[in-house]
Design goal:
The chain has 11 helices and 16 strands. It is α+β, with helices and mostly antiparallel strands. The two termini are 48 Å apart.
């Protein structure tokens, strides 16, 4: 069975490749398995995937998907150098090494199948090597050689690009030449992001309170509830964008933090430049928490739309925006702020009220507007009734 991670129709997923299509395993196996790495690490995961793929027509043709690296959030990427018998003769090295050389690659230095490898402007010596990559599933330590293959979940091919001249910046300085980022990072966007948050805070009214959570590998409460915007802005200037993106965990943490808010109307504003790749909580777990809470989720995704954030907006009565260019971020903030300040609150009683703790779906339809002005309607798509 061939496993793959990919992006399709605005969301990240994983599945089994069958002929010219993929069977979406995230749709079939979530919330138990929300990623390929969870599938490989769990006993019985591959068996569940084989059963889900067997005899099923593909959900998407491969022509419709964007390939991602097979494992999106690996714990580590270990590479073995100087690992073949005739290497010494090839390099004219008289001394045979007793052990192979190890070095690391960072996940951002690898791209998916059929995706372009980026040559950095610092060098013209980008080359490639065809490598076999072993994907480790079951965890272990101090593993006997006879048992090693029992921890290998699969095999894939790696076109390992190397910025060759950067390998020679030291006696054995592999890391710089192997780890140029293929996608960029949040660093160059921080100044404008901070300005956008300042613009948003200035639009709020007296009596509003807010807090600040930053998230990379994990979410962290930087500033507790305050009514002074300067406390938030002072902390923002010292934040450095490093590490992974634990988006789901940050939303979970924010909703839980909101339970201590004094004001009855509560909203969580999320600004991010990427999808989740390091969270403990799955998409389905976060959505259920948001549906059970009374917190609206507003978000801005930089450069790309996030299907997951759009779902959170619909679940909560908030809204997801996207800014495809940094230059458009102020206008996007202005849209969000206007919607945030200008809202009507409508309520209703269900015809058959029963406190059974079940989820109730809500649908709003606009029959006709004054002068037939076209309007868009956004509302909270449902709620959980109280349980007796």
């Amino acid at each position: 069975m061939k496993l793959a991670s990919y992006r399709v129709r605005g969301r990240e997923s994983f599945g089994g490749v069958v002929g010219d299509g993929v069977v979406d395993l995230k749709l079939r196996l979530a919330p138990r398995y929300d990623s390929a790495i969870e599938l490989l690490r769990t006993d019985g995961g591959l068996d569940a995937a084989r059963a889900a793929v067997r005899g099923v027509r593909p959900d998407f043709p491969v022509s419709e998907i964007e390939w991602l690296p097979p494992i999106l959030a690996p714990e580590k990427i270990l590479c073995v150098g100087i690992n073949y018998a005739n290497r010494n003769a090839e390099f004219g090295d008289a001394e045979t090494p007793a052990y192979p050389s190890l070095f690391f690659r960072v996940p951002g230095s690898l791209v998916g199948h059929r995706q372009p490898i980026m040559r950095p402007c610092e060098s013209e010596q980008l080359d490639y090597e065809a490598e076999i990559a072993l994907v480790i599933g079951r965890a272990g330590r101090r593993i006997a050689p006879a048992d090693a293959l029992g921890h290998v979940a699969g095999v894939t091919l790696c076109n390992e690009g190397t910025v060759r001249d950067w390998l020679r910046h030291g006696k054995f300085n592999v890391t710089p030449g192997k780890n140029f980022d293929a996608s960029g990072s949040m660093k160059n966007r921080m100044d404008r992001s901070i300005a956008a948050i300042k613009q948003f805070l200035e639009s709020l009214t007296k009596g509003d309170e807010f807090f600040l959570i930053r998230f990379n590998d994990r979410p962290e409460l930087v500033t507790g509830f305050t009514q002074d915007p300067n406390e938030i802005l002072g902390e923002l200037s010292s934040i450095q964008p490093v590490g992974w993106t634990a988006l789901n965990d940050a939303v979970w943490f924010g909703v839980q933090t909101m339970k201590r808010a004094k004001n009855s109307r509560r909203a969580l504003f999320v600004l991010t430049d990427g999808g989740d790749n390091n969270s403990r909580y799955s998409d389905s777990e976060v959505r259920k928490l948001v549906q059970e809470s009374d917190v609206r989720i507003y978000s801005i995704g930089l450069f790309e739309r996030s299907h997951f954030l759009e779902l959170l907006g619909m679940d909560s009565g908030g809204r997801a925006f996207s800014a495809h260019k940094l230059e458009s971020l102020p206008q996007t903030i202005d849209k969000l702020s206007r919607e945030f300040r200008n809202q009507y609150v409508l309520g209703y009683y269900p015809k058959e009220a029963s406190n059974d703790g079940k989820y109730r779906r809500v649908r709003v339809e606009m029959i006709e507007t004054i002068k037939h002005i076209p309007l868009n309607v956004f509302w909270r798509r449902g709620y959980y009734s109280p349980a007796e």
